[in-house]
Amino acid sequence: MRVGFIGDIVGKPGRTMLEQYLRKLRQEFELDFVIANGENASHGFGLASQHAKELFSYGADILTGGNHSWDKKEIIPLLEVMPILRPLNYPVGVPGRGVSVLHVKDEKIAIVNIMGHYGMPMVENPFLAAQKVVDTLRTEGVETIIIDFHAEVTSEKRAMHMLLKGKVSAILGTHTHVGTDDLQIVEGTCYVTDVGLSGARDGVIGMDKDAPLKRFLTGLPASLEIPKKCKKILQMIVMEIEEGKCIEAFKLRVFDDQERLITKAVHE
What we know:
Low-confidence stretches: none
CATH topology: Purple Acid Phosphatase, chain A, domain 2
Radius of gyration: 17 Å
Largest sheet: 7 strands, mixed
CATH architecture: 4-Layer Sandwich
Order of helices and strands: EHEHEEEHEHEEEEHEEEE
Shape: globular
CATH class: Alpha Beta
Mean pLDDT: 97
Oligomer: single chain
Structural class: alpha/beta
Distance between the termini: 21 Å
Number of strands: 14
């Protein structure tokens, strides 16, 4: 099974990159399934129903979320009927679900969305939640388990890797929007601290630079905006998975001038 995972899609520039390239990439790399984090896809904050439908039409099979999952209220009823996840470790009774088990090429694949603690909204312990769901899935015979760990700090993501390596197919970090250079495969588990955003690459974490600079220079509030003109990037991890183990992986960066860079995972 070959799976693609796209990091945080930020606003129209990110959606545009998926529209232009994802179908071609699915065909070129023979992707059987594509996961994408969509919590910033609508103007950088949340996911509107129209944009969710767009992303599915471009080739995404399931969308994951994070701390911005609730920014667009119209998406809440769709969490029950569309392949859209929110973090698993929200309290019982919160709409939606944090895990989905699907059949791909006659195999079960589980996608799990978990959110970290530091700097995030109140959620239950992500490590205990991850242990519990992984144990349950493995008991149910699910071998291929891919986790989107939406967290602020590198230490949480790295610790999750240490907790679950050898037990899941992949732990892929999202949220910080800045891709990290530590793609590796350990005991059959693919890991990267952050996949990196898909969207504007010449601003500040996908946003126009003016508001962040005003905040940092003056301490005064300023509204973050998606840039109207920008250089764009699409970032994706591609994984080859056999019997629940990741055997090969690479990071793909596609730029809007058609340049691309491929970085292979290190086998540890």
